[in-house]
Amino acid sequence: MNDLNSMVYPASTRLVGRDEDLAYIQSFFADSWVQGASLLLSGEAGVGKTTVLDAVARGAAHDGVRVLRAKGVQFEADIAYAGLNQLLVPLFDDFDVLDTVHRDALHVAVGIGTGPPPDRLLTSTAALLLLRLVSARTPLLLVIDDLPWLDRATNAVLGFVARRLVGSRIGFLAASREGSDSFFESSGLPEHRLKPLDEASSAELLALAHPDVAPAVRRRIASEARGNPLALMELPSALSAEQRTTLTAVPAVLPLSQRLQAIFTSRVATLSAAGRELLLIAALDGTGDMAAINAAAGRATDDDLALAERNRLVTVSADSRRLSFRHPLIGAAVVELATAAERRRAHQALADVLEGQPERRAWHLGEATVGPNEGVAALLEEAAHRRLRRGDALGAMAALARAAGLSPAKADESRRLAKAAYVGADSTGELEDASRLLADARLVHPTTGQQSLHAAAASAFLLINRDGDVYTAHRLLVGAIEAGDHGWDASDDALIEALHLLVLLCWYGGEPHLWQPLLTFVERLTPEPPELLWVTTQTFADPARTGAAALPRLEKLIATVGEEPTRVIRVGTASVFPDRLGDFRWATRQLAEQGRAGTAPVRRHLGALMHLGLDYFHLGRWDEADQFADEGLDLCENHDYRFFAWYFHYIKATVAAVRGDTETSDALCEEVIRWAAPRGAHGARFFAAQARALAALGGGDFQTAYQHACTLNPPGTVAPYLPIAMWGAMDMVEAAVRTGREAEAAAHATAMRASAMAELSPRLELLVLAGEAMTAPADESVALFERALSLPSSDRWPFDAARVRLFHGERLRRQRATTEAREQLTLALRSFQQLGAQPWVTRTAAELRASGQPAPAAARGRPAKLTAQELQIATLAATGLTNKQIAERLFLSHRTIGTHLYQIYPKLGITSRAALRDVLAELAAAPEDG
């Protein structure tokens, strides 16, 4: 039996019209098969969510369940872990049940310890462990009110905890306003919506709460309230004695939202000045901690608080001594009623008692300050830097904007606005805000607004996301870097950020000449370039030539990657082409999870999805790669990051290509090219060419594959400053071999060996050896194929390894090593089938049949359709005519006939002329699709 069952609700506290809701919640936590459960409660403002939570909490406490509560407050939403502090206050004395690492992390997170900020996963795990250990003694119910107003960090922890309660003695019940935005990741969690009261319940509630109001007036109020319990309870209080008894005296219009706001304001106004000050400080503080509130309020007495409680404005819990407003609108009304001077005094009072909490103190000082104040502006800027290091880009953006407003010097104001704009564009996904901040920076101080590196970087970023072209963005940023007064100081954050962005612009542009300014800039940095920036220029710009030398330093970066979002993505960028993304996949996956929970910057979330999509494609986990791409496209759409959609289209196009969905792959590639061309994003165009070459190879269209491969690589050259050329290098060799271009194939294999590809990763070495094997004499090719397939972890890349086995099996069969050929082809076929690479299954099955071994039934795909000319050539060849004879009849060269036949055989799933007659007969007998 669950510990949260049999909740009892005394008759005196029965909630009107909520019997079914309470019964549902009771049954939800009472079902014997639910051991540990989470439920989200939603509804419009004033519908009674808090009251239902209170009733559930009372029932749970009556049954011996320990209840822990937290409440989101608008003014505390920017303070990391403020909500977790509220929730865990009653358990502070229990922290010692945790091991040292988890205890210390939780101490720092909730503000009762000192040390570096713990990472989010560690904090979340510590909170979950604490709750589970405590619940072993006494079952727990976590009750969270106003979830959307909790700070982002707390939302992330609660989302983590709520999904890991099965098998525990912990219940989780959280309420949020319907339609409100929240950082809490609610997907997958059950939800119960509180609906407005029906007419009968509305009438009953009004009669119970306001028996002195005339029935006709009550009906009018019920009509205006529309079943909203808060309005039903509060609207009569705003009526005069006459209005309460006389329907005609009631105003004609009672707009619900406006009247409720007016009611809250009028009720707050009846308090003494000290009482209003107390509530104002409580509203601005947001934590509900009476110790801090009393310390800041000073002159308020217990009588002032008691009056606020009697007026149903606030409640103070008896156990935790935490103050909470009965409705968020009450706190908002308190703030609205106060004068600007009163609000500033309250913020100053809070700042005075928060000496040990620099971020919260800086924020309150910023709100308390009138006019320019460089000291406070500097504190806010430093607070913004701390928030950025924690991945709180939105909080950093807000702090920088406030710091700008307090800056005495126009140049500093412009600089901070530009920095806020850059953070907004680079991280948060708030491009409209970033654009506005950038415009303000230029307006405040045109020189700084135009010349600061943050302004230039923000401009470049906004430009490529607003239909501008990469070349213009590149030129703008290069010019700003060259003109900057940074002195090439490697510790200049703005300079280094600009250079990291320039790396991406060069890559997007896909032209070698774009890289030269960047490489020159990096060489000029003093005393030396930052390690991550230098490694990225070596492994991301032209890794086929410079990447191998940087690998030892890349490995050190990976070993210390940490969890800071920007660093995770930038180390990932440096790791893409050396195939090292898997070495810290845990960090990238964690970042993606944080992005889904709303606790990581949107741009970093996008970066994580890009890297995971590429990583999982090469691992052969194509369904997941496709899902990451879909998620990325949704993010691009929702946050107006249109520029990055091409990357996810490429991933989807590649997955479709290897699966044989050529139509989809080609459409996606066409979309990439059509989008990239007017924007100068030629890097995207090269990615599309690689996907198209792969699709053509799978379908046996080797001539088309060769054309696409040449877009990436001129035969005999691994294209410089085009890293994707390494991925398409083996495609070039295969396409050249199969179209009779032996010299070009050999030249390209030689170029692959001369490059640094083989030193970068085992996968790339596999491709290099395969290229050499395909172009080597028969007596050398077997040894080269065997070397390729014996590389450590070669099967880690199942699609590449299966392709090499197919090539090896083909060569062995032609050398009449039939048994060995069958072995390699069988292994290749099995891999292709497991991957779902149908075109390659068909090709491999044809080779197996040619070796005299029937392919499994599942591998016998229907022959592909031939073009009219291909069908004509195949028909003539099936009659026994030679290539020369066919060429004479069709007025073509015999080489052209040979090339066509080379492409026809894989399409039909055969390997020789001898099988043409039978397969053509099957084609003629097969019914048409449709």
Keywords for this entry:
930 residues; mainly alpha; 5-stranded parallel sheet; two-stranded antiparallel sheet; 50 helices; elongated
Strand % is under 5%
What share of residues is helical? 55-70%
Name the shape in a single word.
Answer: elongated
Computed over alpha carbons, the radius of gyration is 34 Å
Please tell me the overall pLDDT: 85
Question: What is the number of E strands?
Answer: 7
Query: What order do the strands of the largest sheet run in, or round the barrel if closed?
Result: 2-3-4-1-5
Description:
- The chain is mainly alpha-helical.
- The protein is built from 50 helices and seven strands.
- It has a five-stranded parallel β-sheet, with helices on both faces. Strands 6-7 form a two-stranded antiparallel ribbon.
- The chain starts with 18 loop residues before the first helix and ends in a 5-residue tail after the last helix.
Secondary structure topology:
Layout lengths: L18 H12 L6 E7 L5 H14 L3 E6 L10 H7 L11 H10 L10 H16 L4 E6 L6 H11 L7 E8 L13 E3 L5 H11 L5 H11 L3 H6 L6 H5 L10 H14 L3 H13 L4 H8 L4 H9 L3 E3 L6 E3 L2 H10 L2 H13 L5 H11 L5 H16 L3 H13 L4 H19 L2 H14 L1 H6 L1 H13 L4 H14 L9 H17 L5 H10 L6 H11 L1 H4 L4 H9 L5 H11 L9 H12 L5 H17 L3 H18 L5 H15 L2 H15 L5 H17 L3 H11 L11 H4 L1 H10 L3 H13 L2 H4 L1 H14 L2 H12 L8 H17 L3 H18 L2 H13 L17 H11 L4 H8 L3 H15 L7 H10 L5
Parallel strand pairs: 1-4, 1-5, 2-3, 3-4
Antiparallel strand pairs: 6-7
